[in-house]
User: Fold this.
Amino acid sequence: MFRSLSTISVGKFTGFQSSKRANFNGWIRNLSPSHSREIGVQYSRMRINGPLAIVVAALGAIALLGCARKVEQQAPSKANTPQRGDRVLVESSAAQFYEARVLNVEHSKLRVQALPSGDAALVEVADAYRLPSKVTPLAAASLAICNGPGERWFGCRVVKSDPEGADVTDVNELTQRLAWSQIMPPNALTELNLKRLFDKAGEQHDFEHDLAHAGAPKSIPGWRASAGKAVLARVDGKWWTAAISSEKRGKVRIRFAGSERQAEVDHAELAPEPPYPMEISQRSRFALVRPTNPNQPWNPVRLVSVDALEAVVEGIGSKRRTVPVRDLCPLETTIPTRNP
Assistant:
């Protein structure tokens, strides 16, 4: 009896094992030829019998498939890679573009020839867009790469779009109408570069707008221009360091610092040379900053912060820097103070 039970159990187990092996073999046949051949070789070399062999072989198959998929995902698509002779658009630096032709493909780089200059360069494949690009309509406020008059490529923002094209604007706020064939959607990195470009341009426009409302240097109570005094004088729309030579019939003759140049100005065109009382500087939003060379004009800056000795300032197209308060001439302003 025990023998018959044992025989039945062994038979059932053998049948189960055969069924699983058949299912596994069928799964192997459904794989690609290279994968099934590799797994078959590994399975035939195994000296492990029974269900353990099937489990080990299955794990090996899964590992091989995972590696194959990873390689396929990492490998660049040849269909999307520009080839020799193709026209491409190259992002040479952040949000700066030029058109070129591919001379050769060197692994992950392209050797290109700029059009029409003919200059050669080696660029990353990721920095090149194949031309002509696929026509892709974009929504309003989208950032893009535009091809304007003179075949000039530039960063742009879609203002208004319709099925035929879009009104776009550049960083100088110049708007023009372009067809969708002249507008290219950026990749993620280029879009980030374009966003930074437009953000910086927006800050610049705000600065210039506010500065246009800044007035003349503030007055100091009790100050009066007189002969021999060092002053700031407005000549040709700029403020210069000067000294008063004489006064006649309501006109003041001045001599520019660092030169023999002289001029006649009205009293309204004169202002005290710094330093100013600290409370006046702290209440100001803009100021003139002393030049490094005395025969140069004083340049306007925005006051970021002011303390007893130093001030943090920023100018048009320049980074923030620290200057002594004694080198600042605060300006009147006619614009309301904005909340931070």
